[in-house]
Structure formats: structure tokens, C-alpha cells
Amino acid sequence: MFLVAFFPAVYPPLMAPPANMFDNVPGYEGTVPGGGGFLPPPMPMEPVAPPQPGPEPPDWSISALEENVAREAFKRFASSHCCYSDAPATEGVITSMEPFNTYRYRLETFTESRSTEWAHKPYEGEPADFYTQPAPRPWEVQATPPELFNNHTEKIRVPYTSSIKKSCWVCNGAGVKDGVNCNHCRGTGKDRCSRCDGRGRKECQTCKGKRQLLTYIELKVEKNNVEDHVVEQNPSLKIDDLRSVTGKELFKNSQYLVYPLLGFPNPAVSQASERLVREHQTNYAQNSRILQQRQTVELIPVTKVNYKWKDNTHVYYVYGNEQKVRADDYPATCCCVIL
Ligand SMILES: *[C@@H]1O[C@H](CO)[C@@H](O)[C@H](O)[C@H]1NC(C)=O
């Protein structure tokens, strides 16, 4: 069988694992070199928390934008486009301003997933502990405590799975790769070759010249934070990217599994919450373990500004705490136009 040929059964006399060692570590059945399928977390999940009361409406208003603030934002917008004339922004007369504040719902799910594979490294005197005790199961291995909502990946050598190959199978324990001459000195070992120290041959890359390999089960622990947004879109609001700005935080809660915001005064937010919570449970509870979820509702300030320039009326929007501007019909977009 390929696997057995790949890892010849030559071990130190201390212990002699069976030839089919890959299937023989309890909890690691099916772990193969270079393989590493995801391991489903042990069931069952904890019960879902009871419904959260909807947030009490505190001060959810956002004070209207002042005219001079809207104008300054518009000037910054014009000057950030190198070809735009700033005349409409400086000379245009604001005729009316309407608030179009809009909700954004965000759900974050922080998960942990684990996978294993047989790995090897140059042998550097590590204890060969294969089978001296039962190996801890994949979800019992201690990993670094999570920093919530931050991605992190680590690789851990599973205790009691390490054994020493008597010799590196790539170079047969020579420490140099058989038949591969050092390119630099073409195998002569002369010409003061520094890359091969004059040996004429390259160091074996697999054992790094150590001649022996340690093989073990490697556990990969990945912690990932995934997030999704839903912005309540007013059809008359032609702004695609309300994701890139911040707003006023109205509600935030974080727990093991969040409960949808059913009681939220705005039904679109409740529906978004219900849908995303369901989607995240379906997508992330299968092959990973959900460690924490967080949901946030923000009110994003948006102001529609109507203004007049050279007898024509135009529109721009100021949005987000950052006061970004969107102006699709900016009337002077080329500086070479003769006004
Ligand atoms: C964290 O990992 C998730 C899933 O792989 C990815 O979608 C997200 O962009 C990552 N976040 C950061 C800040 O890198």
C-alpha cells in the first residue's frame, strides 16, 4: 500500500507501532499525510438562549446636518477629484436638505475549526512518545485561548503521536540528497563554494541534514470571524456603499449564540437579523464550533442635499459619520470645460 511504502516501518526499538499506524490512533482515524479533512466538533450544541427583549428606544435621533457642514463636505468631495471644478461646490446654492437616515444590521460569528494531518520535521532530539499514553482527541488538545472576534491559526504537535524514522527516506539518512549535485559548483566542491560548504552536494531539504525525521500528527486550529451586513435600502437613495462608513450604534449584544432581534422597531432589521442568524447557524455549526456571536444595529446618517448651480438643480448625498459625499450629477466633472 502506498502509505506504508511512503513511511517504511522502521522505528527505534523503544516501540514498534503497527504498519497501519495511520488508522490506529483513536480519534484520528482517516488522518493521512498531506490530508487533513475538517473534524466535526463533538455534539451536542448548547441550547439557544431565550429571546432578548428589544432595545428600549433611547435617543435614536441624529441631529440634522448643518448647511455649512454639508457644504464643506461637498468641497472636500470636489477637491478630491483632480479633474472636477470646485465651482458647483463653492458657488452652488443649497435649496433644501432632507434626512435619509438608514439602519445597518451586522452579524459576526466567531468559529473554531480543527483538522489534522500526518506531518514530519527534521529530528532534533524530541521525545518519541508515540503510544506511551493514549493521544488526546482532536477537540481535547489544548489550544491558545481565543481572542474573541480575531482570526488566528496555530499548528500543534499532538502529544503521544511522535516517532522517529531511523533515517530520512528522501536521502536515506545521508543528509545530502543523493544524486543532486550542488548547482553552484556543479558538484566539484571547489571554487570556494559557500552554498554547499565545499561538500559538492546540497543538504537534503527534507531532514535539513539531520538524517532522521520525527513524524507526528499535526493539529491545525483555525479561529475565524465572519461577518455579514444588511443595510436597509431606501429606493430613492442611490448609494451602494453604506458599508464603508460608520454610524450611531443603537444596539449591540454578544453571546455564545445570539437570538434574532425580533422585537426591533424597524421590521426590515428584524427580518435581516432572523435571516442572518439562521444562515450563520446553518453555515458554521456543521464543521466548526461557534465560540461567540455578536450583532450590532447602527443608524447611519444620510442627508440628501438639493442645490442650484447656474439655474439648474442638482443633488448630492452626505453619509456616514465620515461625511462622505456621493454626487452622481456633479455638473463640472472636467477641468478643461470652458465655462
Ligand atoms: C477572518 O477569516 C474569515 C474567514 O476566513 C475572513 O472572511 C475574514 O475576512 C478574516 N478577517 C480578517 C480581518 O482577516
From TrEMBL:
InterPro entries: HSP_DnaJ_Cys-rich_dom, HSP_DnaJ_Cys-rich_dom_sf, SSUH2_homolog. Residues 39-58 are annotated as: Disordered. It comes from the Eukaryota. GO terms for molecular function: heat shock protein binding; unfolded protein binding. This is Ssu-2 homolog. It comes from Amphilophus citrinellus (Midas cichlid). The lineage of its organism: Eukaryota, Metazoa, Chordata, Craniata, Vertebrata.
